[in-house]
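Sequence only, no structure available. Ideas?
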Amino acid sequence: MKSQSSSWQIPLFLTLVALLAVIGLSSYVIINPGEAGVLSILGKAKDGVLLEGVHFKPPLVSKVDIYDVTVQKFEVPAQSSTKDLQQLSASFAINFRLDPIQVVTIRRTQGTLQNIVAKIIAPQTQESFKIAAARRTVEEAITKRNELKQDFDEALGERLQKYGIIVLDTSVVDLAFSTEFSKAVEEKQIAEQRAQRAVYVAREAEQEAEATINRAKGQAEAQRLLRETLTSELLQKQAIEKWDGKFPQVLGGNGAVPFLNLDTGKVTAPTIKP
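Reply:
I predicted one. Tokens follow.
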């Protein structure tokens, strides 16, 4: 009789031990640093966020959803029209984190992190980019890219804050334009290069013309100065310096003695009248 009672007592005891172990393990939860938990009892989220540490909860009928409240990063695409109706596409890297105090509201309204990105962050990124792009032309979006990002950051931060999402930083991964605008920019650059080349050629021709005029003026001035310095006295002096002091060996037929012409530097014979 005793053997029969002990045969079912042992399994019952083991079952009770296992049940108590399950109840004990399910009666508390550990929240690690960088996490926040939301307690739900019978599917209903309870008020009060569970921060890091050990927390007790009703066993078997409760569940704790744990959210990562450290920095998250997602890349989100966006498209918009600029002030001059040009199509502009961009890709933003969004660095954000969930506000631990508001994870209960996030649990009730959005659920998982995937839903937060798909239903909140992506649409609000699109709307914020539209606000920033509509304030400037496509050329201003290129030349004033920092201002575009600043407007985008302000709009996105305000929109996500009310959902319990804190935007820490954003970066423009890519900024693309329509094919028509890219072609227009290329043609404009080619035209500007041609215009700059034409200006360079014109300036070079102008400088060459000025150099030619200056050379001509210099030559004319040199000739004028030369004419002013070549006086008759100087010519006579130069002729005397060139004469070797010898008279011609052959005299004229009339027996006259030749003389030196100081004007020309040549030895000539005088003309004797009969």
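Residues 72-182 form a domain with the Tetrahydropterin Synthase; Chain A fold (CATH 3.30.479.30).
Hope that gets you unstuck.
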